[in-house]
Amino acid sequence: MINDTANPTTKRKVMITAITAAILFVIILILKTAKPETPAAETVEKLTLVSTGELTFTTMRPGFKTIGTLTAPAVTEITSQVQGTIKEVLIENGEKVIKGQPLILIDDVEQARLFSQAKAQYAQANAALIKAEAQHSTDLKLLQKDKELSQLARKSLERYKNLQKRNLATEAQVDQANETLQRQESSQLQRQLAVDTWSAQQAELEANLESAKAQFEQAEEDLASTEVTAPFSGRVHLVSVANAGRISKGSPLISLYDDQSVVLEASLPPTTMSLLMQHKELQKEMTASGSLWGQDIGFRFKSLAQRSNAQGNPVALFEPLQEFQTLAVNRGIEATITLPVQTNTYAIPVTALHDHAYIYLLKDDQTLDRVDVSIVGEAYQSDERFYIISAPSIKPGSAYVTSQMLSDINGLKVQPAQTQGQTL
């Protein structure tokens, strides 16, 4: 409880403090009420600043860059016809060769020995046939003689039998005449058998001769094959052996290709392939260019390959423009494929294309209008890359945005920066 007998001085101080606080509160309230209200700031719309250009038909040739491969339609692999040891390799990978040029030498000691054996067997088989033919000729003559002798022996036996009936010949004489007849008839039968079986014997001997001849010719060919020569003029693709190496029959030795048939294989994007199929007359005007070992190489379209690459894209074949140009197969080359100039197409900077599908036109009210386009190809000018596009709904002279927008902002109002100029 408050003591009613408190010091009057203290009460007076508390009262003065309360009055002072009240006065200050009233002054602050009056000042706040009298302060003029600050006018609200006007809201200013902040527009996205974009770069723009003007669309006009282009005369730039569309194309695209890709990694192509130099290939030969056919690479011929030469294999060994014999087993043996490599005596000397006379060429290197990539070397130019002419038809008949020696490429590899194989030690011919083994093949020379086999050739001598086959030659002797062939001569032996030939001699056996000649001998048998002579024997057959003799057998024919002797068979006639045997028939005559058999007839005489038969008559002799009959004569002795008649004499025996008249007791003019003994039993022993008759037996001897009979024995002579039996021996002569046996000789005749043997001679007849030789004559009758001659056809089979002749066929067997002739077959042996043909076999020996084939072995002789094979041995002769194998001996000649110890010197491996180029079957045609071309270039060495790969040497598969080395000096002193042991090889067997069928071992790969070397592969060659016709260096005048080298082509560039390059895959085509689906859009390009679709264009070529719709306008086949454009195929013959398609070209390619690239660089290999610092040498610029030009190509012309040859044909479409009957296969696709690993990604399923079609493959086109291009042949070199220059004849007798040295090109190494199985080598990658950065190539630029160029198509003829397309009508009603536009060249735009790569930043103007969004998602490879659409661009933004700029309407009169400065709002964006999304328009779908088709990519015809690419083009390069002063190392700057452009897309060649087409869109039937676009009118030449339309303004478009060249800036890359981060999201789909169709209908957004923007602030155009200074126009970059017309398309090329």
What report would you give on this structure?
This protein has 424 residues and is of the alpha+beta class. The protein folds into four domains: 52-60 and 343-416, conserved putative lor/sdh protein from methanococcus maripaludis s2 fold, CATH 2.40.420; 63-72 and 259-338, Beta Barrel (Elongation Factor Tu (Ef-tu), domain 3), CATH 2.40.30; 76-102 and 231-254, OB fold (Dihydrolipoamide Acetyltransferase, E2P) (Beta Barrel); 111-224. The chain is 34% helix and 29% strand. It is built from five helices and 23 strands. It has helices at residues 8-34, 109-165, 171-196, 198-224, 270-278; strands at residues 48-50, 52-54, 63-71, 75-79, 84-89, 96-97, 102-106, 227-229, 234-239, 246-247, 252-257, 263-267, 287-292, 295-308, 314-320, 331-338, 346-349, 358-362, 368-372, 374-381, 384-390, 399-401, 414-416. It has a six-stranded antiparallel beta barrel. Strands 4-11-9-6 form a four-stranded antiparallel beta sheet, with no helix packed on it. A four-stranded antiparallel beta sheet has the order 8-7-5-10, with no helix packed on it. Strand 18 and strand 19 (368-372) form a beta hairpin. The longest helix has 57 residues, at 109-165. The protein is rod-shaped. The two termini are 99 Å apart. The mean pLDDT is 87.
What is the average per-residue confidence, as pLDDT, rounded to a whole number?
87
The structure class reads alpha+beta
Would you report the number of β strands?
Answer: 23
Q: Which band does the percent of strand residues land in?
A: 25-35%
Helical residue percent band: 25-40%
Stretches where pLDDT is under 50 for at least 5 consecutive residues are none
Dominant shape: rod-shaped
Assembly category? single chain
Major sheet description: 6 strands, antiparallel, barrel
Q: Provide a count of the helices.
A: 5
Query: How would you write the strand order of the largest sheet?
Result: 3-12-15-14-13-16
| Integer tally of domains | 4
Which sequence of SSEs, written as H and E, runs from N to C?
HEEEEEEEHHHEEEEEHEEEEEEEEEEE
Please give the radius of gyration in angstroms.
55 Å
End-to-end distance, in Å? 99 Å
